[in-house]
């Protein structure tokens, strides 16, 4: 298969879809890889490293899209990429369609095959391609929150861990999944007093067993959230409903009950955000203030640490990408339920319920799409 790796052009996105090591694996299995010039520079990988691994360097993004049968990216295509996408071209990347109506309609119109990292799902409901970036974003959230709590950045002027004789900051984490767990761990390590809320009591029991004593757990409901936001200095939104919009747990009216200079970090922003006043921001202009409350809502937080993020992401995506390349997307998805759940939009049809529900679109059974015109011999594809 012909694999294309374009340079990410979203604002301040320095990650890249494939490392030189990943290119080497594709080449080993007989695939051709085309990498846009300087695509890996932001993550610390030079064009020469890709060439040594067996890739062909192409000068422009247009050439990459034109050549490739499968595009391997990090973030969803943006408007200037839409015309470059070809019918039946496979795009393997983060999409977050439930928070992007324009993107959804564009991919339907282009009749591309959109396989989203964030909805590839294991039988135990784990999200293997979302976990690495959730780990990065979760660990970054207290770090960014601590920075914006500083007075010159319009925060309360409070040190997260306090000092002897001075109480530490109070951190509220909404959600006890991967992001929330990592956020609580780092905030606690910095010395803050942390409260983690979730509706999954079994998960709260697990956290209670291994978290340090400065982390407490509490059942999540509106009453408890309204009480907690009044004393919190930093609130981290870490809610995820796979493939669907996040619910608004922090509403606009709650802002007036918070202390001026409180910082909100909404890690769920790329799924619509769990804070009603959230809107996507960039690393270039990361915060805004409403009712004296600092909002940090960067939609690609891991893009600020691209070397770590790119390596972590490729570790997770490469085995799946190799299956798609060696078996073809249709066969790979028929044989692998994890990948089948990653299909969101296929040849103009929405095949993922969360996306259809978000925008009131017709849902097509993914199995119907997979079995359309499917004829293959097991001997015609490679096992990876």
From TrEMBL:
Residue numbers binding substrate: 15, 75
The Alanine dehydrogenase/pyridine nucleotide transhydrogenase NAD(H)-binding domain, residue ranges: 149-297
Source taxon at top rank: Bacteria
GO molecular function list: alanine dehydrogenase activity; nucleotide binding
Gene Ontology terms: biological process: L-alanine catabolic process
Keyword hit for Repressor: no
Amino-acid positions noted as binding NAD(+) in the UniProt annotation, renumbered to this chain: 134, 198, 203, 220, 239-240, 267-270, 298-301
One GO CC term on file: plasma membrane
Active site: 96, 270
UniProt domain Alanine dehydrogenase/pyridine nucleotide transhydrogenase N-terminal: residue ranges: 4-137
Reactions listed under catalytic activity: L-alanine + NAD(+) + H2O = pyruvate + NH4(+) + NADH + H(+)
SMART domains for the chain: AlaDh_PNT_C, AlaDh_PNT_N
TM ranges: none
InterPro entries given in the database record: Ala_DH, Ala_DH/PNT_CS2, AlaDH/PNT_N, AlaDH/PNT_NAD(H)-bd, NAD(P)-bd_dom_sf
Keywords attached to this entry: NAD, Nucleotide-binding, Oxidoreductase
E.C. numbers: 1.4.1.1
Pfam families: AlaDh_PNT_C, AlaDh_PNT_N
Homology family: Belongs to the AlaDH/PNT family.
NCBIfam families, alphabetized: alaDH
Name assigned to this protein: Alanine dehydrogenase
Organism from which the protein derives: Hymenobacter rubripertinctus
Gene: ald
